[in-house]
Amino acid sequence: MKNKWVVDGKLRWCWLALGGAALMLQEFPKEGHDSWVPAGKVGEGVSLCFTREDALAIYHEVRSRGIEASEPRVGNAMWVTGLSDPDGYRLYFESATDTPEDTKLSEVKG
Question: Which of 14, 65, 73, 75 could be stapled to 4 by a disulfide with Cβ–Cβ 3.0 to 4.6 Å?
Answer without folding.
Answer: 14
